[in-house]
Write a structure and sequence with these properties.
369 residues, alpha+beta, Deoxyribonuclease I, Chain A, 2 domains, seven-stranded mixed beta sheet, 26% helix, globular
């Protein structure tokens, strides 16, 4: 009996040891950002500062890891049944060249990119931001980025390998610092949570000569939060951050893929299949109610609402862009001069279309006497 008891304890001890080893391995190979953390800034050459009162142009673009539009990925269908798992190397090269050409044509002062891969198996472990920068030459000497999906190996049957995806901000003007703000996570068990996306806001600080700094924020909110309050919590975190910047007197602009419909009738224009991704009353109303928006409510509710569509789903049932889910929001200090979605020649490059806004940097504020 004593031998049996010893053997049982030995087996239990080995089991516990294996569990501890597995937990340690998962933790060591996944991504654990702080709630707020500094991110590195790279400036490859002397870079000018913003000037008070100058006009600034920003482009935001979810580039879908340069995959192009020739695929229906497994996650593009709500039940996970899409046939494709990765783009070909040729598709990546063609899309990368197309994205670089759009950026050169628009010639924005800053570029906010979402879904840029770095170290991912599906895109051959390449640093896509570095390759894009090489195609753009010396146009954007300053940059910053942050991961929001990173793991050495994900056991999902449609992945089974490394993942790495970033927010990337490129700038013609000096960036003095960058900060990552963690957003709420999708509810999951502790093990699954380690492999999930950890979405964030990337804040870049741009100094203005003789004036206040301008905060440029880049984000990509959750896409797979159906059945939870994740979107509500992510919007609340975003609103609180933007309100804090406003209360501090900072000038700011945030752009990106918010994965939410605008207020109004947009939800009712969707097919029943597409409605399953969204709430009838959008969580984004909490940003529209507080801040300037591009597109404005009048744009998405007006006769030309389709000109503001930014999403063309990789879904066989959808044959054209069908909704707006990419936006800019701006502080009261910013004066919008022009805004548009570049639709006519971008529909083969990504499931998103680039949005452009031009605005005026606030003039220097004189100190109160």
């Amino acid at each position: 009996m004593k031998r049996i008891k010893t053997m049982v304890l030995w087996i239990v001890g080995i089991g516990i040891g294996l569990i501890v080893l597995l937990v340690a391995l998962v933790w060591a190979t996944t991504f654990h950002p702080a709630a707020v953390q500094a991110e590195p800034v790279t400036c490859s050459a002397p870079v000018p500062m913003l000037q008070p009162g100058q006009q600034l142009k920003i482009l935001t673009y979810n580039v879908q890891y340069m995959a192009g539009k020739g695929y229906v990925f497994y996650y593009d269908i709500l039940d996970g049944s899409g046939p494709d798992e990765r783009p070909s190397a040729q598709s990546i090269s063609q899309t990368m060249a197309g994205v670089a050409q759009i950026i050169r044509d628009e010639d924005p002062d800053l570029v906010l990119l979402q879904e840029v891969d770095d170290g991912a198996k599906r895109t051959d472990y390449e640093d896509q931001a570095a390759r894009l920068q090489s195609l753009l030459g010396s146009r954007y000497p300053c940059s910053t980025s942050t991961f929001y999906w990173k793991a050495a190996w994900v056991p999902h049957p449609r992945i089974r390998g490394a993942v790495g995806m970033k927010l990337v901000t490129l700038s013609k003007y000096r960036i003095t610092s960058a900060t990552r703000h963690q957003l709420a996570l999708i509810p999951a068990d502790p093990l699954t949570q380690q492999f999930n996306l950890k979405r964030a806001i990337l804040e870049a600080r741009l100094p203005t000569a003789g004036g206040n700094d301008v905060m440029v924020l880049n984000t990509h909110l959750e896409a797979f939060a159906q059945g939870s309050d994740t979107m509500e919590r992510q919007v609340a975190r975003t609103r609180d951050l933007l309100q804090r910047l406003t209360d501090q007197g900072d000038a700011w602009i945030i752009g990106g893929d918010f994965n939410l419909l605008p207020p109004g009738t947009s939800y009712h224009r969707l097919s029943d299949d597409q409605k399953r991704y969204y709430q009838p009353e959008t969580e984004l109303v909490h940003l529209y109610d507080h801040f300037q928006a591009v597109p404005a409510l009048a744009d998405v509710e007006g006769a030309d609402y389709h000109q503001w569509y930014t999403h063309f789903p990789n879904n066989p049932t959808v044959s054209a862009p069908n909704k707006t889910i990419d936006y800019f929001f701006l502080s009261p200090k910013m004066q919008v001069l022009k805004a548009y979605v570049r639709q006519h020649d971008t529909q083969s490059l990504s499931d998103h279309l680039p949005v452009v806004v031009e605005f005026t940097v606030p003039d220097r504020e004189e100190p109160a006497e």
